[in-house]
Amino acid sequence: MENLIVSARSAYAYPLLIKQLLINAMSLYGDQEISYRGELRYTYREFRERVGKLANSLSALGVHHGSTVAVMDWDSHRYLECYFGVPMMGATLFTVNVRLSPQQILYTLNDAGADVVLVHPDFVPVIDQIRDKLTCKPRFVLMADGQTVPDTAIPFAGEYEALVGAASPEFEFPEFDERTKAATFYTTGTTGDPKGVCYSHRDIVLHTLTATASLCSPREGQRMHREDVYMPITPMFHVMAWGIPYVAITLGLRTVLPGRYAPEMLLKLRAQEKVSFSHCVPTILQMLLHAAEAGGQDLSGWKIIIGGSALPPSLCEAALERGIDIFAGYGMSETGPIVALAQLPPGYQPASREEEVRLRCSTGRPVPLADFRVVGTDMRELPRDGQSQGEIVLRAPYLTRSYFRKPSASEELWADGYLHTQDVAVVHENGFVQIVDRLKDVIKTGGEWVSSIEIENLVTRVPGVRECAVIGVPDARWGERPMAFVVRQPDSEVGAEDIRAELMNHVSAQRLSKFAVPEADRIAFVAEIPKTSVGKIDKKLLRGNKAA
Amino acid sequence: MENLIVSARSAYAYPLLIKQLLINAMSLYGDQEISYRGELRYTYREFRERVGKLANSLSALGVHHGSTVAVMDWDSHRYLECYFGVPMMGATLFTVNVRLSPQQILYTLNDAGADVVLVHPDFVPVIDQIRDKLTCKPRFVLMADGQTVPDTAIPFAGEYEALVGAASPEFEFPEFDERTKAATFYTTGTTGDPKGVCYSHRDIVLHTLTATASLCSPREGQRMHREDVYMPITPMFHVMAWGIPYVAITLGLRTVLPGRYAPEMLLKLRAQEKVSFSHCVPTILQMLLHAAEAGGQDLSGWKIIIGGSALPPSLCEAALERGIDIFAGYGMSETGPIVALAQLPPGYQPASREEEVRLRCSTGRPVPLADFRVVGTDMRELPRDGQSQGEIVLRAPYLTRSYFRKPSASEELWADGYLHTQDVAVVHENGFVQIVDRLKDVIKTGGEWVSSIEIENLVTRVPGVRECAVIGVPDARWGERPMAFVVRQPDSEVGAEDIRAELMNHVSAQRLSKFAVPEADRIAFVAEIPKTSVGKIDKKLLRGNKAA
């Protein structure tokens, strides 16, 4: 057998490391620009130098191969420097979810064992609140960002710009095993403490390559190309902004980091910097559309991937009307994240606008290399009939194998050798997958399974409705019944019976089960629908409120 | 350190195997078409079934994990089935260079240890000639291809279509180490026996992904997209047709296999099948342009990568005039092969047609992940000044670490930890690399280094010249002097002094060293320039003829 395996030395002479994504980007696109809020601009060449300076600065603070460096910042060029500099040293970049509660942030910092924490002034009060309970005893670096720093007793080891400014750009980034931990992020599940998800260098490089292959390969529309201008609108702490900054830098795109998200600022940057490619959650898009309408901004030609939550058809239509080339993407923290994209298929000629919207809002089609299946409880693949509902399970070369220090949750995640997404979906004949619900959000009523998302999509189309969330509530007779929380458009007086009437039309047309129509007293009008720290509808909270 | 490495089980839960390139291609593009010579057509779905049938057929012949299956065929759908089916079984696909001499083919079959040889009728006489000297004792399968089979005593174990037709499509392709040998090809160097180059599954998957990222990412022009129709015109035996069939199938492209290359057939297929993406060596393109001119065919919109030899500017111009979107690619058998592509840069506005042609004919810019350097003899990177000449050395995740059973040649290849290409190049400020010569083809004359390729390009532009090859010949006074072999256009009477006069113009304009102009008696007019088995100018033979 000695000749069968190309020797280990051979295969690993060139491990898949994040630093290799930079090689050609820097040498071919050295003059390309990275900008922060349109206020600060520098070239890829300077970026690369600052990555070296950052490594020297962190090194001086004791960071070495195996250290953990936590970042608490809005989307900035400094964050992008950390995306590369920290893992390239062999340390782990911990992107702290700054929208969690101080207690949860405390838990994640201790669980990950942060050695250094880089802190934007906005998060100084959080650190003040939890500092004496930090068992990991980190050193702190301030990222002043030109802001006034609140009064604090935090013993900062220095300020980012001062440290980086004084350091040498020369740093010999080492080579090491491609399976070395590069980054970690904590996902907040429905129960228990946040769980740490790890990404190795290999994971990130392979995710970058498969995402690039998928994003770039369409003939036109819903694609990324080397002349796009990229601006993330999914926070950089959140699964590394879906890994797309790595794609953008590898391809040499002009990149705009928008800081803290404010609709007016984002729209200003979009126009001023000629941003052509972004990604965000539906809630942000909703806000952008409203702000753009108010300000009369032109959004045409903007390609936006929507993820995090399902893209409601009504929102998709509103975006298309504004000229946005919108489409959904699918993934989770545990999956890299991108495993599917709702790009329209080659040669696609839409039969109707409705059909096109359905495709764009769908879960999409898998990216190359992903073994993406919709299976029954026996793990057998279901027919592609657009009807048979099962769970999405996955294999791909960059999925998280386990949660950090959570063996039983990890085993559950990987039951039967496939990653279980908990998403219930159907597959259409053309290969497009459509999630119908989360496994735990499916409403079991009158012996039928009803999709909460399906009801939400139909209610959102009722004139006067701005947003809707549906959960199942216990019912003595039917097991469960759907309950809808509805936010009205400003000035609208839409009522429960209007909504029921519309839903009954869908029942008459056999597009909806009669069991899916909530009773009038199970349609509640609210001022706001609660969201999780990453902008998803917080159904856990809705259920809790309902129970309370 | 236990937390530093994401566990091996994790990273290799999903090894990079060729079978994973098929997963989504088959599930998303099942109706897509593969055609053979425009005569036979079937869908990706049927292709996948035949891959399973092939595996069962080979299995019945004793092929198992670690076996070597050799193929001697022209470009066919059967070859494409072998590209996938053989390595997916864990066996090694040996793509035999059918243009070698029978003695060399004998050497390579024995060296690789072929267990099974699949033989097209055209190569039955070759096998007849060498069969009794085959120490590897292979079994033979005929690929009849509807042709009359020459009289032979070869004890065929069966005929491809008959075997495949009778087999079951169900075959459980196993999972194994991604470093397992998937394919092998023999490269004919300048000295000694052909050398075996191996590609692992990991190599092929990573080459596919980086080539896809490079090929698909331009905004327009010199790019591949999902609606392209692909036809290879580099033989499938030759570094797996540059690995591009794997890219095409991964993206779900309609694919046309042209059989044996004949210009009229290729042009007929191009028109009939609406082929939009191909690749070939300059000699084939030359023939295609002549045949198209004769037949009045329209070639506009055809994207063609040129590799194997440098693309002469005059040929590039002729192709552009016919509407071909032509550009060079760079690599060698040892490099996967693609490590650079001469795609025009983002936002490129040519200053002149001449400059554009120079870029398209250049060696190009490196693909993602490739550490591509031009270095001096001390291995230091040279300045990007378009002047400093050095050798191209490489690292990339899919380079051949060693030649099969050739330790000393392997050590030479990988001196100083970089793969040595033996190509001498300059790097321009914009990152474009330009090969000026092969290390061994540079002419050392009058204390200067003169590029044989530079002289060839200028001579080829002289009216009446069709082709030119330049070598260095010993000279008592100057060390070496250039000697040019010239093929005239039909009916042309261009003479040595015409050529010298044109070259002297370039000397006057300081575009050429005076040492580069051959004496009149060192300009020889010949009927044909000898080519190697893969279509490159055979300078070894020219030197030999000259010496003789």
TrEMBL record, chains A, B:
In terms of Pfam families, this protein maps to:
AMP-binding, AMP-binding_C
Q: Entry's SUPFAM superfamilies?
A: Acetyl-CoA synthetase-like
- Name the domain of life this protein comes from: Bacteria
Q: Where is the AMP-dependent synthetase/ligase domain?
A: 36-404
Enzyme Commission code? 6.2.1.26
Question: Which keywords, in A-to-Z order, does the entry hold?
Answer: Fatty acid metabolism, Ligase, Lipid metabolism
Similarity remark: Belongs to the ATP-dependent AMP-binding enzyme family.
The protein in question is named: AMP-dependent synthetase and ligase
